[in-house]
Inverse folding.
């Protein structure tokens, strides 16, 4: 088997086939198919290969992150993406691309490309590559199911845990994960630890540290000490471990614990990541994040990478869409149809006033004084003249609310004041005329 990168071909049994065609074929395999194929050949991918494929799939998502995309802490963790375990990378994928079909396809393609380019390290033969070409399609699982199959098909390289070197984890894990995440990362492999050590666990760690540092000790005397006494002893001997562990102590204890575990390993030491599926190298502008971190600030660019000018127009469009959202506040003067909020205790349209017996209270009009009566008479007599400040009938607690008060009061409120008094005076006049006519008839 021979790979010609310039021509983009791979030669199998003397016949050249396009690398891209083979990669696309493998990328259509379900997780169960690909995992089953590798397992049948006793091939274990390096877990770091899977991490690289996951990260590459997120390239476009990371390019267009802005200050509102993630929390400040999440961006600070992103600075250490080179030290992300498979657990960390899956969490990031879930955050940025969960159920995103296009990103899922990019992930499968990147993984297939890494597998093909590392056929020698994986010890794939011409026959096995040729067999891959004949495998039929199966129904594709969800991303979560797929990644579970691939994770099972992976193993650790020497001195690694979850795809990252222990040396990197010792310095960077505390900057990436919370304590509960560290414990969850271990639980992924069936390792159940707590952030608080028992006396037996603490004693074992102290004895290990003393041995590594070449310090002699009396085993029986040490075993007789209480947990508090062991804590004092550890501090006096510069052993940076306490029964109740902080995050750095938890990482140190994890590395110590893993040194005594049997970890499934792969024979792969180094592998190639083709240029076509290289993970994005980028920087996070933490200074801008610290200045634009509150809810009222605008979304700004925080990710920089080589060639980012080519994506400036698209990023600007995203930022403009975010920053030009209409304000949620409405100017009541510009929108007169919007009613001002009612004060506490006032009557609302949806809740008419009722008395304690659940009966609507009938409100009687207030008594009118002589000045008001005269004013209304004048208004009727001068109705053809323009009134600059008409006098209104005052009713106790009367409002324009159609749901408020009795029907009688509402009907009364709809009749103009002048018309009321005109009707009254007309009726009185007619009555007087009637009495006069009646008297004349009696005399006759």
């Amino acid at each position: 088997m021979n790979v010609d990168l310039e021509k983009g071909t791979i030669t199998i049994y003397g016949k050249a086939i396009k690398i891209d065609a083979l990669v696309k074929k493998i990328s259509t395999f379900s997780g169960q198919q690909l995992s089953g194929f590798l397992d049948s050949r006793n091939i274990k991918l390096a877990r770091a290969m899977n991490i690289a494929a996951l990260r590459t799939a997120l390239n476009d998502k990371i390019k267009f992150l802005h200050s509102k995309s993630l929390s400040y802490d999440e961006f600070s963790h992103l600075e250490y993406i080179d030290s992300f375990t498979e657990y960390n990378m899956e969490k990031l994928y879930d955050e940025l691309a969960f159920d995103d079909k296009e990103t899922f396809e990019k992930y499968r393609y990147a993984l297939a490309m890494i597998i093909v380019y590392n056929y020698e390290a994986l010890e794939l033969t011409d026959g096995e590559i040729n067999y891959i070409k004949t495998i039929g399609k199966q129904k594709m699982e969800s991303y979560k199911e797929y990644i579970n199959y691939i994770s099972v098909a992976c193993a650790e390289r020497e001195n690694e845990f979850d795809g990252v070197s222990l040396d990197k984890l010792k310095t960077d894990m505390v900057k990436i994960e919370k304590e509960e995440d560290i414990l969850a990362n271990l639980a992924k492999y069936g390792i159940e630890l707590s952030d608080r050590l028992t006396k037996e666990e603490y004693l074992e760690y102290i004895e290990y540290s003393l041995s590594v540092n070449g310090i002699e000790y009396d085993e029986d005397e040490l075993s007789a000490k209480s947990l508090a006494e062991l804590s004092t002893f550890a501090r006096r001997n510069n052993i940076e471990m306490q029964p109740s562990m902080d995050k750095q102590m938890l990482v140190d204890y994890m590395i110590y614990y893993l040194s005594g575990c049997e970890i499934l390993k792969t024979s792969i030491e180094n592998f190639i990541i083709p240029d076509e599926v290289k993970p994005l190298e980028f920087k996070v502008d933490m200074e801008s994040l610290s200045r634009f971190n509150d809810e009222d600030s605008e979304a700004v660019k925080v990710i920089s990478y080589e060639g980012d000018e080519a994506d400036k127009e698209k990023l600007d469009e995203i930022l403009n869409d975010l920053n030009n959202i209409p304000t949620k506040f409405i100017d009541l003067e510009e929108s007169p149809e919007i009613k001002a909020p009612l004060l506490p205790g006032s009557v609302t349209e949806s809740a008419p006033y009722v008395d304690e017996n659940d009966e609507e209270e009938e409100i009687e009009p207030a008594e009118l004084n002589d000045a008001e009566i005269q004013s209304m008479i004048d208004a009727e007599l001068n109705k053809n003249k323009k009134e600059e400040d008409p006098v209104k009938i005052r009713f106790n607690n009367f409002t324009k609310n159609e749901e408020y008060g009795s029907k009688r009061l509402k009907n009364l409120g709809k009749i103009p004041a002048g018309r009321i008094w005109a009707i009254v005076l007309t009726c009185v006049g007619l009555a007087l005329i009637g009495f006069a006519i009646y008297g004349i008839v009696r005399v006759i």
